């Protein structure tokens, strides 16, 4: 069976690129620089369901994205989470957090309503994450 993105993830995010294992997507919420990595494997709900080599690849992609976002967003902290309570398909959130953001110091989940990205911010964030994807694939 081929990889299919969960409908909620498709509705809430924008495609950036496909990495070695994961699809990289941008959350459509202007309040946070928020990316998702979704392993392009069918039927995976938990990271431990991936073969060992793919599990290592997932965390390499997560760690490199987090480091990139820390360097390029001015974040005070990078939040990484894989909850899956609302969307069972395995996906890892990588969120650049800053003191004083709309949810600081609490979690982003359940904090207010998402505010869709305006065109200029959408393009800026997509370009930033595309830059990560290009560097990741090239290096």
TrEMBL record:
InterPro entries: HIT-like (IPR011146), HIT-like_sf (IPR036265), HIT_Hint (IPR026026). GO terms for molecular function: catalytic activity. This is Histidine triad protein.
